[in-house]
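<context>
A single protein, sequence plus fold
<sample>
Here is the protein in question:
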Amino acid sequence: MSQVISPGKVAAALAEYWSPRVIGEVDDAYVKVARSLSDFGWSGCESVCAVHISAAS
């Protein structure tokens, strides 16, 4: 059975900024979290399928 993980809690526990960690997998794609210094917008890159979710700490 899969374990429920809070992406916000995992990101908050990371010591380094912009050092992504894999926390799950959906089909053939990885779900990753990383700490950031601020919010950022959608990159608009057509060749990469990505979802960026920002959470306030």
Residues 1-57 form one domain. The helical segments are 7-13.
